[in-house]
C-alpha cells in the first residue's frame, strides 16, 4: 500500500510559529545567525523543524529564498513607517526620532538577532539585490531626515542610521525576545538610541516624542 501523501508527522517539538512557514523561518533564523549561511543546509533546517527536506521546498524554493525573506523582514516594516512619517505633520526632529525608535524596537522584538544577517559575506551576492535596494532606500530616508536638521553636506547626516544599527550589537542571540512589541511603551534601548541620534546632530529632543511615536505606530498597525 502506498504511504500517506503530505506533510509527515513531526519528529521534533514544534518550533515557534503559527504555521509551517513561520516555523521554518524561526529555525532558519537560529541556524543562520549562529553558524552562518554557507554552513547551514536545508537538511539541517528541516530537521530543526521536524519535517522532511522535501516538505521544506513546498514553502520555500531554496535556502537563498529563506535567507532573503529574513533579510527583508528587517527593513520592510520600517520602510512602511517611513512612508507614513512622510505624511505626518511633525518636525523633522520628531520624524527622525520616531524612525530610529521604531527600527530599534523592531530589531529587539525577534527571538533571534536577524539584524546580524546583513553582516554575513553572502549578503553582497547579486542574489540579494532586492534587499540591497530596500536597505539603500531606508538608509536614504534616515539621511534625508537628518539633512533637514543639519543641512546639506554635513557628514553627521550619516550617523543616525549607524546609531540605530548599533542595537544589533547590543542585543543577545539566545532565542529570547529582548523587548516584545507593546502598544503602550518603547524599549529603553530604543529611546536611548533615538535620543542619541538627535544628540549627535545637535538637535533638541521633542518633548512628547515617546507618546507621539507610539500613536503613529498604533495608526500604522491599524492599516
TrEMBL record:
SUPFAM superfamilies: Homeodomain-like. Residues 18-78 form the HTH tetR-type domain. Residues 41-60 bind DNA. Keywords: DNA-binding, Transcription, Transcription regulation. Coiled coil: none annotated. Pfam families: TetR_N. Residues 1-20 are annotated as: Disordered. InterPro entries: Homeodomain-like_sf, HTH-type_TetR-like_transc_reg, HTH_TetR. One of its GO terms (molecular function) is DNA-binding transcription factor activity. Gene3D superfamilies: Tetracycline Repressor, domain 2. Residues 7-18 have a biased composition (Basic residues). This is Transcription regulator AmtR. It comes from Corynebacterium efficiens (strain DSM 44549 / YS-314 / AJ 12310 / JCM 11189 / NBRC 100395).
